[in-house]
From TrEMBL:
Tagged with keyword Hydrolase: yes
Keywords: Hydrolase
UniProt cross-references to PANTHER family, sorted A to Z: CONIDIAL PIGMENT BIOSYNTHESIS PROTEIN AYG1 (AFU_ORTHOLOGUE AFUA_2G17550) (PTHR22946:SF12), DIENELACTONE HYDROLASE DOMAIN-CONTAINING PROTEIN-RELATED (PTHR22946)
Name listed for the protein in its UniProt record: Alpha/beta hydrolase family protein
Domain of life: Bacteria
Top class in the EC scheme: hydrolase
One GO MF term: hydrolase activity
Taxonomic source organism: Azospirillum argentinense
Keyword Hydrolase: yes
Enzyme Commission (EC) number: 3.4.-.-
Amino acid sequence: MTTLFHDALHEDFGTWPIAYIPYGGAEFGEIKAVAEAIGDGDDGAYYDAWTAAGDRLAHEADIALAKGHKATARALYLRASAFHNASFHPLYGAPVDPRLIAAFRKGTAALDKGLSLGPRPAIPLAIPFGGMAMPGRFIPAEGFETRVRPLIVFTNGYDGTITDMYFASAVAASRRGYHSLLFDGPGQGAMLYEHNVPLRPDWETVIAAVVDFAETLPLVDAERIALSGWSLGGHLAPRAASGEPRIAALIADPGTWSIADGFRDVVVHKLGVAPEEAADLGALDQGVIDRMDAFIRSHRQLNWKVVQRGFWVHGVADLRSYLASAERFTMRGRAHLIACPTLIAQAEGDALSAGAGAFFDALVGPKTLMRFTAAEGADGHCEMGNRSLLNLRVLDWLDDRFEVGG
């Protein structure tokens, strides 16, 4: 398969903005130019190339705005936000890299400048939560900016941001006539980067606070609030819906039963550990932990996922603590509590989709399993090669549940 970026981790992250092209997040030529500027460079070169492109776009936006071209300025600020947002993921880890903070702040500022120039400015929100405030954005439905409409609450996963969710889902939802509420929960975006608040398994507590806030917004139809999660959000959203009855429809992309089970399969089938000994990964023999740790650290992409991202997001310092934390993220004993109509997405070739069918079978309420294939260009994690197809089908499904004309 043809790749744009020389390094596999850079390819993973650098191609995200391709999914955002239909929604104003990038153009292919710009992404290709960034990849060429990086060449064989390291994570610093990756950061520098994306940052330079983001700075250029923001500067062009400033000039357009000064000349009174608000539509152009809006488009360029939004594109700049996507480019700054693409720059820092390889730098993940604790202690936080100051370049990550700088890029995140630039991207957030560009996003907010762009959103402020819309027909109804989308201003930053502060959602009360446990003595803190979770940052959020309310994105109004196009053509219905002052009318009561159904709301989709979008929740990210391990490493997505409000900017990612805006381009991946909220623009499509707005065009279809849905208001959207985007937010950073514990372990996500600003809550992690700026405040070092780790991820937590009881996402129903998080979403209860978000829905409490949403119900105060005058444009929200409180009887038609959907919850949609992508990546690890495909676990967090169902977990939330299992304990928050105000959710009227649920989308999980992909449906993810747990964090720990994938590691458990490796321990049993690759390392030869007896299933009963792998029942609690946090209690594994130290020799097994050491073998896992060495293997993970020897593999660049696995090291990023577990050591750089996983340890930081979970607020732990070693593999045993991470696995013990991962065991708490499970739908075991909770799937039957989901009463609202539920859509489980499953993409061909996505390892995190492997258990989506079993998750679907465990649901007892109204449910739909929606598959995406390589033949459609929609295989892989979160259908990023054809995100617009996912959005079309999911919004059709939601239109039918909420009786919205589309």
